[in-house]
Amino acid sequence: xxxxxxxxxxxxxxxxxxxxxxxxxxxxxxxxxxxxxxxxxxxxxxxxxxxxxxxxxxxxxxxxxxxxxxxxxxxxxxxxxxxxxxx
Length: 87
Hints:
Blueprint: H1 3-11, H2 49-60, H3 67-73
């Protein structure tokens, strides 16, 4: 819409038009919005020594680890996977 058209539109009782980049028109709040509920507390982490050891292994790693790598880092025995062998 050209500036002459906008002037005629306003003269006819129309609302002001906003171009891209113009700020939004201000709105009057008739009531306050509902308060935002507080964030839930963070989950409680286990305090078991094994959990602490596992977290220490992940903290020392410089890349993602697989379960086998975590077990090897903790010097745990690796058992063979027998779930995929035919009976």
